[in-house]
Each structure stands twice: as C-alpha cells, then as structure tokens.
TrEMBL record:
GTP binds at residues 14-21, 82-86, 136-139. Belongs to the TRAFAC class translation factor GTPase superfamily. Classic translation factor GTPase family. PrfC subfamily. This is Peptide chain release factor 3. Signal peptide: none annotated. Pfam families: EF-G_D2 (PF22042), GTP_EFTU (PF00009), RF3_C (PF16658). The keyword Cytoplasm applies. It comes from Novosphingobium tardum. The gene is prfC.
Amino acid sequence: MSQLSNRRTFAIISHPDAGKTTLTEKLLLQGGAIHLAGEVKARGQARRARSDWMKIEQQRGISVTSSVMTFERGGITFNLLDTPGHEDFSEDTYRTLTAVDSAVMVIDAAKGIEPQTRKLFEVCRMRSVPIITFINKVDREGRECFSLLDEVADALALDVSPMSWPVGMGGQFQGILDLATGHVSRPEGDSREFLGKIDIDPELPVEVAEEVELASVGYPAFDIEAYRHGDLTPVYFGSALKNFGVAELIDAIAKYAPPPRPQPSEAGEIAPERDEVTGFVFKVQANMDPQHRDRIAFMRMVSGTFKRGMKLTPSGLGKPIAVHSPILFFAQDREIADTAQAGDIIGIPNHGTLRVGDTLSERNEVRFTGLPNFAPEILRRVQLKDPTKTKQLRKALDDLSEEGVIQVFYPEIGAQWIVGVVGQLQLEVLVSRLEAEYKVEAVLEPAPFDTARWLKGAPDALKTFADFNKTNLARDRDGDPVFLARSAWDVSYQQERHPELAFGAVKER
C-alpha cells in the first residue's frame, strides 16, 4: 500500500507554444532527473528538449509523439507522460490520457484558454482526470489574473482555487506570492530568474494586496476531494523559463494528485490493490533505437506487483509470454526494471505480438476498455517511388498503424493502399519515418474519399451492402470492414438507406 500511495502518474497538456516542453524540463531538473535543462529555442537546430528524440521533432522543434520519464523526488516516484502539444496529434494524446491519474494544464498568461487546451480538457473530463492548472509566462506581459481565472472557470466549467499570485506582470514583475505562506519568490540578476531568494515578510504593492484580498473572497478555498473528483482545479502562476512556480507545482503533484486509480474494464473497475498483475498497452513505439529495429509496447500497470521474468497473457494473443526485459523509460534512455507497481509505465520489447488496447494479465480474465480509434479526417493514397519495395511499405504501414500514427485501409478493389490521419502533420511524420526508419520513399496522393466509417451488422446485411458498394469498401489492419465515404452527406445517405448497419466514427480497441 505504501508503494501505491507513493506513485504519481501524470501528463502535461497544453496548446502548442504554451511552454509545456520547457516546464517538462524544469520539472525533471527539480526532480534531479537531469542536471542541465536543454536549451529551448523557437526554431532551428538549437531546439533540444530532452523528451523530443525523433528526427522530425529535432528538425521542427515540436513534440510529435508521447514519451515517458520516470524519476523520484522526496520518496515519491513520478511517471511523467509528455504528450504532443501539436493540435494534429489528438489521437496519440488521447490514448496517453487514458494511462494517467492526473494532468497538469499549461496556459499562456497572454493567450488564456486556446482550442487545443479545451479539446484536451474535454478528454480529461470524460475520464474525470483531476487537473492542476499552471498559468505560464507571467514574467511577460499578459492578461490580468482575474480574467484568466474567470475564463478557466467559465470555459471549462470548473471551480478555480488560486494557490499563488504574481506580484506584477511583464516589466513590472517582482515575483510570485505563495498564498498559503505569504512568502514571495523574488527574481535576481540580469536574467531575472528565480535563484532561491525568498522574501518571508514582503511589502506588497497596494494593488497586489487588494487583488489578493479580493481573490481570497471571490474564489473557493482548495478542496482536495473536489479536485480529485475533477470539479476544482488549483491554479499556480509562474514562469517555467525563469524557474518560478516549478517547485511549488511539483510539490502540489506530490501532495494533492491521486495515487493510482481504478481502471475501467468489461467486468467493472479494477482496483490497484488487486493481487493479480494486470495492465493495458496504450502505445506502441517502433524504432526508438533504429539500429536495433526495436518495438516497445508501453504498458500502464493497473494492479499487482510485476516482477521481471513473469509470464503474462495478452488478450489479443491468448497464450502467455514471458517478459524478460521490461524497461523503465527516461525519454529514449532506458534501464531494465526488476519490479513495477500499479501506476508505473513499463516498456515491453516485442516483435509485433502486442498492440494498442491489449490487456495483459496473469489469468487472462480481465479486459480493459476505453482506448478508441477515431475516424480519420484526412485520407491519402500511398504511391511508392520504387515499386520493388512493396513488401517494405506493407511492413512499415502495419508498424505505424499499430503505433497509432496512422490508420491504414486496404481497398477491396484497387491495389493502392490508403492511409488515414486525424491531422495534417501526421502525414509529414509518415513520409519522414518511412524514409528515415524503413528506407522507403513514397509520395501521398489525394484519395477520392473524405472520411471512413467502421461497419457493423448482421453478415447478410453486410454482404448486401458490399455487393452494391464494392468500390467504397476496404478492410483495416484488423480485417474489419470499413466504408470509405466521399463526403459527410454520403455517410448520412448510406445510413438512411441501411438502418440495419452501424456506421461507426469510433472503433474501440
């Protein structure tokens, strides 16, 4: 039980450019996991975030895949899942959010709630994931605090409870007031960073003192139960770049964020205290080490104490596999894990045996639920530059669809395979990884289809539909039937004509 209570598995979510990667680095620095934060610049080769290891990430200066970083601080084991901040990666981000117990939402003080922030928050709300809000970049000119707090409360329908307060903003920035202690963290030197100077008896400017008094009356006090139920968010102001508010944030995660929570399954919720080892695969990543062509399944431990060498049965395979080399991650660095507890994220090397959505357990009696595929919003045909590499292309598309980077559809008529993605940037990732990891050059051509729907129904009804719509039918990599629609109108029209069939925009793994 003490092992469980000392686990914090959380994600950081934000709109692009809100400062998520910088905050990730500073949390790792505070946790002693790194000794020098990477230099984070807006563009070019200087961008080197510790969690961004893929070639395209280094070139573009953005996170395009989730990564896991495990570190310890003050007797607490933190499992930090760094999610892609780019708006085109909602599907990978969603699956990552199924594996965490809490989240930190980063908001730019000048911009407030942005579209991606709202979308990711809704994903958290679906699973009642508790959220701590970090309003970043207060050392720059930004909106007034009350405006930001009210927007969080109104836009996200959350109670807000400020835990700190900026003493001035932008050019007037004089530090961060801790509302619990009354102490102020002060900037020092030409860089105006926080280097440890604490003013324990500060004289606040009159307008700041008035704001603090008004905030204490106007917003509810922090309530840990309301926070853990997803009804209230504690709000911290700070500057990740200048190191303000970072220590307070990591302390808040340790103190308030929940330990491992029960997870939904077909047989009801599975508690972390359960003796049997259970877990689910929420991500598969190929070629983290291109020299070894490896494939790592990221498994969220749900219950039990895992020990190296233990045999677990994947739900998609039906027969046990021995897990000899489980991995703990620090971005692309890794070490062998001898044991793991509920809440931990371990990597399991495999050769295509494990897939996203698989449940692993000792007795093969549990099936975890809630990891969906979304209908793609962009469809493209794949055209090989070298037709002799068809076999390599098929392998690459299967690998990348297994990771969730793309979805691949094999038409019933025609030889050209079709890939589907949720956002445009995934197409660039696809072409880049085909060339870098599989030595396959390909171009993506427009497909005559706008979206896809998974078909479900009685075999006779499916056969009747197929007889009249052969040119619009395909199979996904699982062999399930898919209707490729030329427009949203086409989907509605077919639904009206075939009410006995279900045209699914989501397929749960």
